[in-house]
Design a protein that fits this description.
four-stranded antiparallel sheet; 12 helices
Length: 306
């Protein structure tokens, strides 16, 4: 079966600048991927190749097994660019209806689709009828997401979909993306929001200078980062007892009954617990610390994979 979308050894240069260097990845139907990495890593260029807006210098960009620039491929696609441009004098509702006409929807269907999408992305009716030139950044973000959904796409390419949204707006978009996943859509998300990535994506591809440096589930990548733990005891340990508890561990911080330490082998944590109990101290809390952000920073600080 053809992949929902794929890059095959794609290279892209802009003059002397290398945007993508032999980048390859694929997603099966219904799978959700995220591209993460520093600015200039090639994330937006990868999305533009899949959207058929940028022609690779080498390699192939495919949607459903077809060239991403083909008419057939674009029929299954919904794309939200990082900085969408709109006709400022038109209302949001009018732009949605125009987009519906491009997708060959009949007039009544265009109206229904526009109303449904405006409600789904949380753009109120009184805002939808205003000129887009009066929209806030968050309102523009909601409109852009609605426009990407007009054609009922099977593949969604979303470049920073929550940029400009407030807390409630970001949560609403995350919920919508989760619903789209549950509907069997295939998603490729470029986002600096790792909360969004963890909530919406099964697999993360880490880019640096146009190359893949790591990939895996959010959980697997998190496990590659620094392994830090918090141990909360029933009472503050004496200095000698504390040293004995943390034998073989790197003590990072101590605050009364709380110890924070780093460890390469999680099995060594069991020994710390045993030594604390032998010293007559109970365990109130034990949990790992450090999230995906720390893990990705650690991965990106290293070199390229062999």
């Amino acid at each position: 079966m053809c992949a929902a979308f794929a890059l095959e050894a794609v290279e892209k240069r802009y003059g002397r600048s290398v945007a993508l260097c032999g980048l390859s990845f694929r997603a099966e139907r219904g799978e959700s991927l995220a591209l993460v990495g520093p600015n200039g890593a090639g994330k937006s260029t990868a999305l533009k190749c899949l959207a058929g807006l940028v022609r690779p210098d080498a390699g192939r960009a495919l949607l459903g097994g077809r060239d991403a620039r083909s008419t057939e491929a674009r029929r299954v696609l919904g794309y939200l660019p990082e900085r969408p441009r709109y006709e400022e004098r038109c209302s949001g509702e009018e732009l949605l209806r125009r987009e519906g006409r491009l997708h060959a929807l009949e007039r009544a269907a265009r109206r229904r689709r526009a109303r449904d999408l405006l409600e789904r992305v949380g753009l109120p009716p009184e805002v939808a009828v205003r000129p887009v030139g009066t929209y806030s950044k968050g309102e523009r973000a909601r409109l852009g997401l609605a426009l990407s959904l007009v054609g009922d796409p099977q593949v969604l390419l979303l470049d920073e979909p929550t940029d400009g949204l407030d807390l409630i707006g970001r949560r609403a978009v995350r919920t919508l993306l989760q619903e789209l996943r549950a509907d069997g859509r295939s998603l490729l998300l470029n986002s600096h929001s790792l909360v969004e990535v963890e909530a919406c994506c099964e697999r993360v591809i880490v880019l640096r200078s146009g190359r893949e440096v790591a990939q895996g589930s959010p959980e697997a990548l998190r496990a590659r980062g620094p392994q830090r733990w918090l141990l909360r005891l029933t009472a503050p340990p004496a200095p000698q007892v504390r040293e004995r508890i943390c034998e073989g561990l790197e003590l990072l911080e101590t605050d009364g009954p709380v110890l924070r330490f780093a460890v390469e082998d999680p099995a060594l944590v069991d020994g710390a617990i045993d030594r604390a109990r032998s010293a007559g101290l109970g365990i109130r809390e034990l949990r790992p610390e450090g999230g995906l952000e720390e893990a990705l920073a650690d991965i990106l600080a290293g070199g390229f994979p062999a």
